[in-house]
């Protein structure tokens, strides 16, 4: 993911590879950040206004930075990002969902950034191997969460058309939200029940203020059991990976 | 923890600290507060610790290369630049001189308060809400326009040309400007 001559790369140690890092957890968190970063990057050149283009890509950049730190804890970041097969990615299915219309992107941001902000808040409070990154990232995700909440209010409590689209987007992505609270191996200090309760409370509050209705359907389905964290992904993810990995696979070792 | 620094280490730190930030060249790395330590690891080997402003700060690699060049020019054969995340960088780490230079450069410096993170800003009117409450919220510590000094400025976007800045507009002189947002 870096673009610099190979000989300078050796002197820049992003994070020392620690042996006590739970690899599965680093991959799960890193893949969430990487995949959502790529999806947000797809808005480049397509956002409704210039300020929003800058906002979405800034959020994508923050996530990419987090992904680089997390993936580097377990191996070579480029190999992990560009040379793994679909089934080896353990990101949530939520983050791989296509951008859809702007309301879908905002609903996905709302669900994920509230989750990530709360999760990093818990990790930052502990003293595990993810605490330093979480303490840094929690400040960044506070801005992501605020961005998503402000847009949810504006779209939900906007025109009839924006209200309908935002409600539809919240409903459509609801079934991917249950997976977020399945405990991740290696993140033993996290109180997943408390996390879920705090997430629901926050969602209820934002949606109510946005004159939207909290979706009622199941937050996960039997056919989705395990899902992204176990490497089972939805159809659009394969196409996204093909685009993301194509350059690196076609030109191995290319630098610029 | 007490660490003793040798005169050479002080000299190397001064050199590394005087490297300009690649994206905000009016500031040095010392003024930005991202240089954590410079330690000798032998006669002509040195280890430098840098901390990023944001996790993804793309300027970090350019900073590392610049530091490496400056220290090699000063006779160091081996320069290792390490990135450390903890304790997390905060806008409180920007020196007073750094703040003055930012303002002079046309960027409103971060405010020096303890609270960090997004500042709640009331939305304009939506369908069921009439907008900001009356009387208008008076901020105890407003972001001042770096051009005319007016405290009467508004937020255009929480994100701007780089991850660390927000885009604002002055309601007195009408100039848009960047604000180094508080983290």
UniProtKB/TrEMBL annotation, chain B:
InterPro entries: Fe-S_Maturation_MIP18, FSCA_dom_sf, MIP18-like, PaaD-like, Zn_ribbon_PaaD. SUPFAM superfamilies: Fe-S cluster assembly (FSCA) domain-like (SSF117916). Residues 136-181 form the PaaD zinc beta ribbon domain. Pfam families: FeS_assembly_P, Zn_ribbon_PaaD. It comes from the Bacteria. NCBIfam families: PA_CoA_Oxy4. This is Phenylacetate-CoA oxygenase subunit PaaJ. It comes from Streptomyces echinoruber.
């Amino acid at each position: 993911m870096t673009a610099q001559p190979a000989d300078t790369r050796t002197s820049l140690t992003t994070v020392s590879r620690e042996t006590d890092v739970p690899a599965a957890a680093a991959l799960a968190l890193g893949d969430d950040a990487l995949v959502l970063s790529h999806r947000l990057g797809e808005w480049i050149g397509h956002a409704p206004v210039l300020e929003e283009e800058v906002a979405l890509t800034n959020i994508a950049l923050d996530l990419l930075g987090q992904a680089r730190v997390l993936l580097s804890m377990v191996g070579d970041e480029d190999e992990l990002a560009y040379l793994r097969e679909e089934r080896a990615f353990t990101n949530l299915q939520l983050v791989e969902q296509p951008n859809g219309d702007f309301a879908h992107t905002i609903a996905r941001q709302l669900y994920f950034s509230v989750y990530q902000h709360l999760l990093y808040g818990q990790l930052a409070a502990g003293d595990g191997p993810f605490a330093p990154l979480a303490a840094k990232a929690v400040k960044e995700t506070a801005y992501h969460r605020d961005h998503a909440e402000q847009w949810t209010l504006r779209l939900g409590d906007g025109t009839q058309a924006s209200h309908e689209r935002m409600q539809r987007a919240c409903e459509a992505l609801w079934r991917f939200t249950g997976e977020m609270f399945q405990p991740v191996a290696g993140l033993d200090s996290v109180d997943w029940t408390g996390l879920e309760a705090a997430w629901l409370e926050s969602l209820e509050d934002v949606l109510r203020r946005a004159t939207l209705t909290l979706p009622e359907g199941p937050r996960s389905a039997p056919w989705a059991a395990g899902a992204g964290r176990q490497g089972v992904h939805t159809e659009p993810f394969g196409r996204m990976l093909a685009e993301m990995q194509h350059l690196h696979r076609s030109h191995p070792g290319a630098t610029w | 923890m007490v660490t003793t620094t040798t005169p050479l280490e002080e000299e190397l730190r001064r050199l590394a600290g005087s490297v300009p930030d690649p994206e905000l060249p009016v500031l040095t790395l010392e003024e930005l507060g991202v240089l954590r330590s410079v330690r000798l690891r032998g006669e002509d080997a040195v280890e430098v610790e840098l901390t990023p402003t944001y996790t993804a700060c793309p300027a970090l690699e350019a900073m590392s290369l610049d530091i490496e060049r400056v220290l090699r020019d000063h006779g160091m054969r081996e320069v290792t630049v390490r990135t450390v995340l903890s304790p997390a960088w905060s806008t409180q780490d920007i020196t007073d001189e750094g703040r003055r230079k930012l303002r002079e450069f046309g960027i409103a410096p971060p405010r020096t308060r303890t609270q960090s993170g997004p500042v709640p800003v009331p939305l304009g009117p939506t369908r069921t809400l009439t907008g900001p409450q009356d009387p208008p919220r008076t901020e105890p510590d407003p972001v001042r326009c770096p051009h005319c000094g007016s405290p009467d400025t508004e937020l255009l976007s929480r994100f701007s040309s780089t991850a660390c800045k927000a885009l604002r507009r002055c309601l007195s002189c009408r100039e848009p400007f960047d604000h180094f947002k508080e983290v």
